[in-house]
Amino acid sequence: MQSVPIYQAKNQLSELIVAVEGGEEIVLTRRGVPVARLTALVGQEGASGRRIEAALGRLRALRESVSLDADLKSVAREGLD
């Protein structure tokens, strides 16, 4: 959990939101006293992680669907000619 003064949070709101989307909890303070908490909405924790995992799954499927008719060295040599 990260504590951030309110005056600093105003200047870093975008970065703080990205951290919250990543699952971090941020406490906003005024003169060192906690006054508010930034957390992801229920069901939104790890939304970025789910998108990344979905993209990786699509890349894995693409990799499995592509095959070479020759070995990699000969394919590379053909590209140089």
TrEMBL record:
<comment type="similarity">
    <text>Belongs to the phD/YefM antitoxin family.</text>
</comment>
<dbReference type="InterPro" id="IPR006442">
    <property type="entry name" value="Antitoxin_Phd/YefM"/>
</dbReference>
<dbReference type="InterPro" id="IPR036165">
    <property type="entry name" value="YefM-like_sf"/>
</dbReference>
<protein>
    <recommendedName>
        <fullName>Antitoxin</fullName>
    </recommendedName>
</protein>
<comment type="function">
    <text>Antitoxin component of a type II toxin-antitoxin (TA) system.</text>
</comment>
<dbReference type="Pfam" id="PF02604">
    <property type="entry name" value="PhdYeFM_antitox"/>
</dbReference>
